[in-house]
Write a structure and sequence with these properties.
heterotrimer, A mainly alpha (about 230), B alpha/beta (about 220), C alpha/beta (about 260), A: mainly alpha, C: about 260 residues, alpha/beta, 11 helices, elongated
Chain lengths: ~230, ~220, ~260
């Protein structure tokens, strides 16, 4: 019988992370798309790091940072009684960093591709920057936005190396599907590992397929032909 | 009285341009900005709208300071009582004509002005269409209407008649003059068509390479 | 053989002129053997002149790899079950033989803490009981001493003894159950404090060794280089026997292993 807990935990992690990435990644992408600050290339590089760093390296540094004897971990423990190591919130924190470029880059690219006059028009009409973002910019980059959301989600589903380093494989808390598969293989229970793998594969496949279909406009009604 | 001075160095792929403008205008008048493309007409209008910060300069509308680099005053575009009709229209692709105009309304403001403008500009049939379904001339009318929703004190028009055929151009010019007679505003009209400027404006400033090379009443 | 090139880890070998003996031996050992096996191999190579490569990983991972044809020559597991599985599937030439008994110890970051129930202990690291032999022992210990119910929520699982040690070393875990052999040679022996656990309270950790027969490669290797293949099989046998020599037993004891009928 299949234990659904790791799969549900993976889903919960991916949803929470994606939601938080929308709140943090979109404003960051917005700033990057319009900034000419000298520090911009540095920020862009930092944002890209999770793309190129081996996940275990990221996990390694997070372990050092977040453990109670570490700088951030110690502060959190002392002042907020919060331990991010071996906990679901810790995984969320790590996943947000891990999947950050998957939200920021498509959105930044989409926003940079919008004509500057759209922004200028909205500003001259007396709208605040947030109204501009919410009512003008984001609605006009729907494909990029969708790509960002879906890729962040799918990427978090597949997260392994980081979780392995800082999760502690606690059932119901940090034992996500990718870790469960790994454990099943090590325990030589290949058929169970195969079942989990198939479910994850199918789920991720259909999600990414959805991105391609939406971006390729296969769902859009051909409004141009009706006049 | 509107007084302005503005200096800024701009870099373009084709080279650099030093903007150096000084201008006086009467409030409530139509002022024409004439010059070839690349002369700096759009840049000047953008300065007026608050979309451009000068290196040095000031802009005072009847004693009200909208920009003064020496006193470090800069009122952002949203807070100026000004509107701009962009050369490329800048209609919001995700909104219908009606929504584009309604977007310009202040919070809680009555939709009446939107309905009036749609009527005046003959946009009723198109009001639920999105910009990608409109012709150039139709988009131009929407852009103009949207700028007028706020009944701005200062209206900047950047080549507003370029996409229109003769009939439509004539009609639109008449509408503008009509609205202006009913409730005057100051308008700055940038165009490379001297005939348009002579028809619409009282005063013309000629721009070349970022500087006003001549100025005077129109014909 | 080209296959060896992919499975390299820093091993404590003195590289000898491999041409003389034919090939290097690849020794696969469980994580808790990491430090002991380096010394054993060094001693073996000095004595026999046979160079070796070491592959250190968790018993479970190594077993999985060997099942899929990884070209190791000898496998030293942390238990009997994994090598038994390999024998049953035909990957080992004989049933596993116990080469040492491991000892489970408890390590505490703060030596002033007297009990695992203390609120100062938030996380206790153990190896995954589903896959790691020392994890099985740790969980058994906790259950037999009646501590499991109270401490279960503090447990965090490392995927191997190596990760358990990493959690303790980095300060992420305040306490942990680990292998004495892995603790003694690492930095952990210099921090915190550790104590033996009553061996009656956990099932004996009997670590087994098997010689692998590389059956998937045998046909190919025999055809290509029959003499070299023979030499490797013989070298593997030599290493296997070395494990039970007095010299090797001394090394194992030094690293905290128990040999056969010995008690501490």
């Amino acid at each position: 019988m299949i234990d659904w807990e790791p799969l549900l935990l993976t889903l919960k992690l991916a949803l929470t992370t994606t939601f938080l990435l929308m709140l943090t990644g979109i404003p960051l992408a917005w700033w990057l798309s319009g900034s000419r600050a000298r520090v911009k290339p540095v920020i862009e590089t930092l944002v890209s790091m999770p793309l190129v760093l081996p996940p275990t390296v990221l996990g390694f540094y997070l372990l050092i940072l977040l453990s109670p004897s570490g700088s951030l971990g110690g502060w959190l423990d002392q002042h907020l009684g919060l331990r991010l190591i071996f906990s679901f919130p810790g995984l969320v924190f790590a996943s947000v960093i891990y999947s950050l470029p998957f939200m920021v880059q498509p959105v930044q690219s989409g926003l940079a591709g919008l004509p500057p006059s759209l922004r200028e028009a909205a500003l001259t009409l007396g709208k605040s920057r947030w109204t501009l973002l919410y009512r003008v910019l984001l609605p006009n980059i729907k494909p990029s936005l969708l790509t960002g959301i879906i890729l962040s989600f799918a990427h978090t589903i597949g997260e392994f190396g980081v979780v392995l380093m800082i999760g502690g494989s606690i059932p119901g808390e940090t034992k996500v599907a990718s870790i469960a598969i790994y454990d099943e293989v090590e325990a030589l229970r290949y058929d169970m590992a195969g079942r989990y793998s198939l479910i994850l594969f199918a789920f991720t496949f259909f999600i990414v397929l959805a991105v391609h279909l939406i971006n390729g406009n296969y769902f859009k009604k051909k409004a141009h032909d009706q006049a | 009285m509107i007084k302005l001075e503005f200096q800024k160095k701009l870099s373009f792929p084709s080279g650099e341009m030093n903007m150096d403008i000084a201008l006086h205008m009467k409030e409530g008048e139509w002022v024409g900005i004439y010059g070839p493309s690349g002369a700096g007409k759009t840049t000047l209008l953008r300065f007026m709208a608050g979309l451009l910060r000068p290196h040095n300069g000031f802009l005072r509308i009847n004693g009200e300071t909208w920009c003064d680099t020496r006193k470090r005053i800069f009122i952002p575009p949203g807070k100026r009582d000004a509107a701009m009709v962009f050369q490329e229209f800048a209609l919001f692709p995700n909104m219908t004509v009606d929504q584009n105009l309604a977007f310009a309304l202040k919070r809680g403001e009555d939709r009446r002005i939107v309905r009036e403008l749609i009527e005046i500009m003959q946009l009723e049939a198109l009001k639920d269409a999105k910009p990608d379904r409109l012709s150039g001339g139709q988009k131009q009318r929407v852009a103009l209407a949207r700028a007028l929703v706020r009944r701005p004190r200062l209206l900047m028009l950047d080549e507003p008649f370029s996409a229109l055929d003769d009939d439509m151009r004539h009609n639109l010019q008449e509408y503008l003059l009509q609205i202006h007679r009913a409730r005057p505003f100051t308008a700055m009209l940038a165009s490379h068509s001297l005939s348009t400027l002579n028809h619409m404006t009282r005063q013309i400033a000629v721009l070349s390479e970022g500087k006003i090379i001549s100025e005077g009443p129109s014909l | 053989m080209i296959f060896l090139a992919g499975f390299l880890l820093p091993g404590g070998c003195v590289p000898q002129k491999a041409a003389e003996q034919g090939e290097k031996l690849t020794i696969a050992a469980a994580a808790n053997m990491q430090f002991a096996i380096e010394e054993i191999v060094k001693s073996f190579t000095q004595e026999s002149g046979i160079p070796c490569e070491l592959v250190i990983s968790s018993s479970g991972k190594l077993t999985a790899q060997i099942s899929e044809g990884a070209p190791y020559d000898v496998f030293l597991s942390a238990d009997m079950r994994y090598p038994e599985t390999l024998f049953n599937s035909g990957h080992a030439i004989a049933s596993p033989r116990v080469y040492a008994r491991g000892q489970l110890v408890l390590w505490l970051a703060d030596s002033t803490v007297t009990s695992l129930d203390s609120p100062d202990i938030s996380h206790i690291a153990i190896a995954n009981p589903g896959t790691a032999p020392y994890g099985v022992a740790a969980e058994a210990y906790l259950r037999r001493t009646g501590l499991y119910a109270r401490l279960a929520k503090k447990l965090v699982y490392g995927e191997s003894i190596s990760q358990v040690n990493h959690f303790m070393h980095s300060g992420a875990a305040d306490a942990g159950f680990t292998a004495l052999s892995a603790l003694l040679a690492s930095d952990l022996s210099q921090q915190g404090s550790w104590s033996w656990l009553d061996t009656a309270a956990y099932p004996p950790i009997r670590q087994g060794v098997v010689i692998l027969n590389n059956k998937d490669l045998r046909q190919a290797s025999r055809a290509v280089a029959p003499a070299q293949h023979e030499a490797r099989q013989q070298a593997a046998q030599q290493f296997y026997e070395f494990l039970f020599s007095a010299k090797c037993k001394a090394i194992l004891e030094e690293y905290g292993f128990l040999i056969d009928n010995q008690v501490h």
